[in-house]
Amino acid sequence: MRSFFGWIAAAALGVAGSAQAATVPIGLAAMAQLVRNGVVETPAVIYATVDRYRSLELDLYRPANAKAALPIVMFVHGGAFSGDPFHQLAGVPYNPDSAADNPATLWQLARRGYVVANVTYRLSGEAQFPAQIQDVKQAVRFLRAHAGEIGGDPNRIIAWGASAGGYLVNLLGTSCGVAAFEPPKLLLGGPPIGTDRSISDCVNAVADWYGPVQFATLDAMTAANHLPGPGPRSPHNAPDSPESDLMGCALPVCSADLLREANPLTYVSAQTPPFLIMHGLSDSAVPYEQSTMLAAALKAKGVPVKITLVPGAGHLFMGISKGESDKLTEETFEYIDRISHPKNIVIAVDKDGNVTWNGQLVKSNDELLKRMKALEN
Fold it and tell me: Is the pLDDT at 264 greater than 60, yes or no?
């Protein structure tokens, strides 16, 4: 079984040397910033420029006066691939009492000791798959390349997403280094935004809130459940469904190869990073079996995964109280804490590929695996 500690070592190897790639400073000091209660907020930081498209932006939340490089959490919003609810996380605007508003939640996470990025991407009305995953991967590269300037640790990046954003972080987490999702050259060109493709697009962990996985089975799973659950519901196989719009074809007539390429399960391997998965059992928009299917695939490859299924919760965690949804947010925060600070172990890789464990040279892969196994017991 590949542990989280194993993934840290592999991720460190994957980005070794890439952090040295030349980057043009973002120039945060010259941007509009708001400081409140110890958190610096920098809105509308451009992370990519795409020819014939709008600039792609992210909002940054950082603790003021941090003394060391902090883990980076990248949040990817939902909205059925077609909307940009940049200021909502769960239950908004359908039920404002059911969960926290996005900026406030991400601000709380930053105050906990993280650099947090709230990321936009091209929507299905602007560009079809795989543009969205290309954008999200570009955001990872941008954050890693500029980690020093934003006060982040390029070797500790966690992706968190909800609904459509959950799908994108699922695909991001499983498809590290997949050539088909490399951003096109036009996305990477031109200072001051472009970053080097040699910079890793891998993340160290994923937190998925009710994201779909296998588009072709969504309707069958929903019909089998007979769920009248709270929240949005639409036939996924319809020509104008969110998934059909994303793929550029009605799901029943999309090619098997295209659907396979878009399926996070296609890329699950022993090298996939740890996952937290949370899903409502009464979700009538994205059936919870999508999440149990993903969890089973991860476990089959020995990937650490924690899944929380929430009784009575529909899509966006609607149907439960604000107190209950706040507990789910806190559970997510605690998972990110554990993943980001694994027992104060520091695994590093130098420019020559040598691995150290709290400053001591690790002489072989077997030695590294033994140390990681001992931590799990």
Answer: yes
